[in-house]
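Illustration 12: G protein-coupled receptor 55.
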Amino acid sequence: MDSKWHKRGNMSQHNASKNCSFGDVDDLMKNVQMAVHIPTFLLGLLLNLLAIRGFSSFLKKKWPGYAATSIYMINLAVFDLLLVLSLPFKMVLSQVRTPSPAFCTLVECLYFISMYGSVFTICCISLDRFLAIQCPMLVSHLRSPTKTFGTCCVIWVLVWTGSVPIYSFHGKVEKYRCFHNMSDGTWSARVFFPLEVFGFLLPMAIMGFCSCRSIRILLGLRDCNHRACIWTIATSLAVFVVSFLPVHLAFFLQFLVRNGFIVECRARRGISLFLQLSMCFSNVNCCLDVFCYYFVIKEFRADIVARRLSRVQLVRQDTMITRG
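Figure caption equivalent — predicted structure in token form:
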């Protein structure tokens, strides 16, 4: 008797799943994606190219104090540029049946590599800044351009290696659209939890600790010259949380749906809408990072002006001593 009721329960869940339509959600997202992705593409392309050009100029001047941060910022801008370039293909391929599975996989790889490359790069920037503030004398040798470039290379290797599960996103599903109809294996615990923990929760914990600790140290110094640095740290943390927290919460809810913990149609439709909206607006991160670039460049320029003023004062003092 129990086995009969169990089978009937499974059949009713299966029927409910088949009868649950997501057509109106997808139709709504077509308009939302057009409204968000087109300006994001245009602005992101322009702003990130300008950022790469701006930080490259600091590298050309070969100022050791700015080299590490400039390399990290260029790396972040490249990841953002990669995301920007994948947006037109994502927008089109998510609405039509893909003509080439290999091309669909390539676009999905570029999209998620750029997302998690940005996550790891922002985390490294936060950790690097914290160490520079906490113990500047001890870490000065770790912030060489060569070692910073090596760290960026490690990030690229990690995200490309981590993209391996993307090749089986759709499994044996015959009729699918890019970024839709993922296989059950994609939402298995062995794939989902490493992605969630190492791809988001751990970087967010590191960044949260480093940012809060850095701001606390700088506020304790009571120096107006550190105001730009405080704004840079606070802005980076805010952009990170706003961009990546909603989408990873949506991933978790979709994991519950795909593993049978949430079966009610209305809840599943709401989660599908939330997932697509959060992914759509997380792409705006490639434009929001410009605020981080702005405050970093402002910090660089303030430091350069301060150094020039100190040199002028030293020259004046030497002149006065010589005349005396």
